[in-house]
TrEMBL record:
Pfam families: O-FucT
GO biological process: fucose metabolic process
UniProt xrefs under InterPro entries: FucosylTrfase_pln (IPR024709), GDP-Fuc_O-FucTrfase (IPR019378)
Similarity comment: family membership: Belongs to the glycosyltransferase GT106 family.
GO molecular function: glycosyltransferase activity
Source organism phylogeny: Eukaryota, Viridiplantae, Streptophyta, Embryophyta, Tracheophyta
Protein name, entry field: O-fucosyltransferase family protein
Keyword set includes Membrane: yes
Residue stretches spanning the membrane: 37-58
Superkingdom of origin organism: Eukaryota
UniProt KW keywords: Carbohydrate metabolism, Fucose metabolism, Glycosyltransferase, Membrane, Transferase, Transmembrane, Transmembrane helix
Length: 566
């Protein structure tokens, strides 16, 4: 009900009764009663407005703290009140609100003392044997189920027949989205018996990287490695370009739906290719089905693990960084833990989750969303529910949460930690507690000299390639937010390390419950973290299911049990 309607006596509540009484004739003191009624109505109206002001200044109502009002300023809608009540009820559910910083403040003395106790225990035992349970375990935990790569013997084929024409694709996204597009493009080229033109990279407004294929991957190695399976050229021949007036845009774009089947390419794309001699597909992201014939699956793996290697400058620096990381990990026999930390500004903004930054954080996240996804989050019918996102495990873990999780799982302060990430949002605040828990923390900025990184600055895909290269040989890999980077890395580590490389992929729906209890004790917190670790370990060795990605689960199409051969 509006303030104006309420002041007119609106027909309900105490205000309506007082107005009616003021109009009754024949009762003594009518004027006084009328004045009293008017005063009462005025007081009620003022109380309502005061309550509304308190509500507005407290930042309640609506999404992200905004109060929704009707067309008249100050007139709150019934819908906004209902949403406020719903938000309050949601916030009351366990795991809805970010309270991890409060839990850390309470538990830090116990975490610190726990590390001291562990160090004392280590002094009476062999350092290696004490740490073996967490970090020194072998990649090969189940030698009876060891898998080995065997794509080469699945790819034996006769001499390539004459080409049906040229296939051009445009890869989009970040490093591993591009990688996926390249692998799928080779598989499609093989299916069509087409000559693949080195893929072009689409400039992305989020990644903002102008790198070309040869800046990230070794072009010559790619072409040479694939020569028995698919023809690859660096650019279209001049005679073909002449047919299209030297304009790539004149080549028909065979727009293809995501996860298209091999039959689609044979029925829709091949006839055009045969007729025109060249076709292009843009964009080309996830444009081939997950489940395809085994020879195409093997070819995907062959491209991913053998034909695609990083360009020389990336490889040289990455090898030096790995060597430096191993030297920094002397307390754990050269073994280290790598963490893919997704707490960059764009990731936090896209998640629509809220943390402990208050109004400043809200403003920065709103600005980031408008900058990268203009208008997307304000479309009609779009509902943003940070509390539900957090309960559902969709919020990026903060560095503090990652540190507490790992300490609870048993990794102590002598653990060497490599953090792979972009520019962390509010890094000074959020990285400090992680460094406090893991003083032997390294990043590409601490492992490499500024002059070594200079040629990669401003090129997010090349920087991601450095992170990928350091994470690959780590003893334990921790993924915190999904995406192509961890999915490709998990598959690559499975491929290299017998099918069972140690990966921690926490169930964040369970994790947030422990982070939402400021009164939780350290021993109980540790039990919860170790239960999460145990559940993650159970999913270490896994065969690909029909809708799974071959790039995450290379078994069984690309690997064979122990008798397999490269």
């Amino acid at each position: 009900m509006s303030v104006a309607l309420y002041a007119r006596g609106g027909g309900v509540g105490c205000g309506a009764k007082a107005a009616a009484a003021a109009r009754r004739p024949g009762r003594g003191g009518g004027g006084g009663r009328r004045r009293a009624a008017a005063v009462l109505l005025l007081l009620l109206a003022l109380a309502y407005v005061a309550g509304l002001l308190v509500f507005v200044l407290a930042g309640g109502g609506g999404v992200g703290g905004r109060v929704e009002v009707g067309r008249e300023v100050g007139v709150m809608t019934v819908a906004s009140l209902r949403r406020r009540r719903a938000a309050a009820a949601a916030a009351a559910q366990p795991g809805s609100v970010y309270r991890s910083h409060l839990v850390f403040e309470r538990l830090w003395p116990d975490i610190r003392d726990d590390a001291s106790s562990a160090s004392a225990a280590a002094s009476s035992l062999s350092s290696t044997s004490w740490r073996r349970s967490m970090l020194m375990t072998s990649h090969y935990q189940n030698p009876g189920e060891l898998w080995m790569p065997c794509v080469n013997r699945k790819l034996i084929r006769p001499e390539l027949p004459p080409s049906n024409g040229y296939l051009m694709i445009e890869a989009n996204g970040g490093l591993n989205q591009q990688r996926l597009s390249i692998c799928d493009a080779v598989a499609v080229a093989s299916l069509l018996n087409a000559t693949l033109v080195i893929p072009a990279f689409h400039f992305n407004s989020v990644w903002r990287d102008h790198s070309k294929f040869g800046d990230i991957f070794d072009e010559d190695h790619f072409i040479e490695t694939l020569k028995q399976h698919v023809r690859v050229v660096k650019e279209l021949p001049v005679d073909v370009l002449t047919r299209f007036d030297h304009n790539i845009s004149s080549i028909p774009n065979m727009r293809t739906k995501a996860y298209s089947s091999p039959n689609h390419y044979m029925q829709k794309v091949l006839p055009e290719l045969l007729e025109l001699g060249a076709v292009r597909i843009a964009p080309f992201s996830n444009r081939l089905a997950q489940s395809v014939p085994s020879n195409l699956q093997a070819l995907r793996c062959f491209v991913n693990y053998q034909a695609l290697r990083f360009a020389g400058p990336i490889r040289v620096l990455a090898e030096d960084m790995v060597e430096r990381m191993v030297k920094r990990s002397t307390l754990t026999g050269g073994k280290f833990v790598s963490v893919h930390l997704r707490f960059e500004e764009d990731m936090v903004a896209f998640s629509c989750c809220t943390y402990d930054g208050g109004l400043k954080e809200k403003t920065e996240m709103e600005n980031a969303r408008e900058r990268s996804w203009r208008g997307k989050f304000h479309r009609h019918g779009r509902v943003i529910n940070p509390e539900a996102n957090r309960r559902d495990g969709k919020c990026p873990l903060t560095p503090l949460e990652v540190g507490m999780m790992l300490r609870g799982m048993g990794f102590d302060n002598t653990t060497s930690l490599y953090v792979a990430s972009g520019k962390i949002y509010n890094a000074e605040k959020y990285m400090a507690p992680l460094r406090q828990m893991f003083p032997l923390l390294a990043t590409k900025d601490t492992l490499a000299l500024p002059e070594e990184l200079a040629e990669f600055e401003g090129h997010s895909s090349r920087l991601a390639a450095l992170d990928y290269s350091v994470c690959l040989p780590s003893e334990v890999f921790v993924t915190t937010q999904g995406g192509n980077f961890p999915h490709f890395l998990m598959g690559h580590r499975r491929y290299l390390f017998g099918g069972n490389a140690k990966t921690i992929k926490p169930d964040k729906r369970k994790l947030v419950l422990s982070f939402d209890d400021p009164n939780i004790r350290w021993n109980r917190f540790k039990r919860h973290m170790q239960d999460i670790l145990h559940h993650s370990d159970m999913r270490g060795t896994a065969l690909r299911k029909p809708n799974d990605s071959i790039y995450t689960f290379p078994m069984p199409e690309c690997m064979c049990q122990q008798d397999g051969m490269m």
